[in-house]
Here is the input.
Amino acid sequence: MREAVIVEAVRTPVGRRKGGLAGWHAADLSAVMLGELARRTGIDPSVVDDVVWGCVSQVGDQSSNIGRYSVLAAGWPESIPGTTVNRACGSSQQALDFAAHAVMSGQQDVVVAGGVEVMSRVPLGAARATGMPFGPKVLERYQDFSFNQGISAEKIAQKWGFSRTRLDEFSASSHERAAAAQDNGAFATQLVAVGPVTADEGVRRGTTVDTLAGLSPAFVEDGVIHAGNSSQISDGAAALLVTTPEKARELGLKPVARYVAGAVTGADPVLMLTGPIPATEKVLRKAGISLTDVGAYEVNEAFAPVPLAWLAETGADPDRLNPLGGAIALGHPLGATGAILATRLINHMRDNGIRYGLQTMCEGGGTANATVLELV
Here is the structure.
């Protein structure tokens, strides 16, 4: 089987809800990413076989195959197709998997993977506004559980014994690491300015356990989950160019990372957010490496209990977990987050000479993706 490599990865700054990116249509924001990918690589867009784009709330501005309309908005040839993937929060990580699989199988040679979500314009839950997706048999099977991720996060915190203080300590650390990354220029080469927005807008410097203490529980009275230890509602997009080493040489491109393995798994849909634990085990088996071989882990911070439970179950090194902060500080534009994490991870690996990186994402409905990348 052929190898798949990533030759470029770019992202927008992540905008706060109603922030600097709120006025952008998802197709136009995506087009900025496609245009920058072509500019940085110097490729003629006509060599691209497909664009695989993640998006979660595929209604309104983001309906009718936003992947295809992103291609057209970018001014790329009409002959280039585009498709839109929805695996909940892991949508653009799945887009990267699909792109790599197409290249490795020999069916395609050059594929763009990425994703977008402008939550300021298409609110969280908009896709459920006209109906309930679960159906009576699912509700009967799970005793009419609401499938509310915040409730699931409360259940995880209770099961693993995480106090509010522990969750808030982790959340404050996310902001601290993200602020340090901004100050150290860790994001400089991966970011593409969008109008006046040049930096991630969600970082709250000086966040402490004490400053978080005044926030009320969001889902359960006397609960431990609140806005400050949950991911931020955000806007953003990201894109990666995937090809083979041979095609990269033909196009005059230098690979940055090799796609080693990807895995997807299901888990308890009531706890819902624990899928990264078995997904990590599965992808490591496929990659033929151990967790100690991995120099950096990106575990999406949907809620603070998610990476903490992952850490507790895997025994991973906490210093390697989300070293640049995560979604609690930097935001979580749903369909774009998988590609954003991959972009952050690849650049962090390159900047620090890290051979292997792993990213994993919990997802609505109890699924999860995990991916292992290797520095070239």
Notes: The first strand starts at residue 5 and ends at 11. Residues 284 and 354 are 17 Å apart (CA to CA). The mean pLDDT is 97.
